[in-house]
TrEMBL record:
Name used for this protein in its record: Uncharacterized protein
Organism: Cellulomonas fimi (strain ATCC 484 / DSM 20113 / JCM 1341 / CCUG 24087 / LMG 16345 / NBRC 15513 / NCIMB 8980 / NCTC 7547 / NRS-133)
Highest taxon, organism lineage: Bacteria
Amino acid sequence: MAVSLKYLAERPAPLAPHEEALVARILDEQNASLRLEAPRLTLDASPLPDAVLLHGSTTLPAHPLHALAALLHWCGALTELRRALPDAWWSVRLDDESVPWDDAAGYALPGMDDPELLAALPR
């Protein structure tokens, strides 16, 4: 069964041109730095409703360790995007579960920083 990471950012004002460029740069850099064979982080290209800045979803790999490695990477990418658009309201979900936000650490699920687990991840 496929697991998806879903993301949404909203605010009343649309993205300014410099913000669009910043979001595109972050996505390009984060997608290029993922070393796994996994779907890339993309934004829905369809017309967005009012107040929606960006949204999309990424399906995680089926292999559990690859899925965790991709999840760690994409949580880092979404953390960078959220920090680039700090005045937006954000929702990041793993299927139906909210991914918690921490001002210092960003997006992460409990236990994702376990050293033994991290050592087992593909590089």
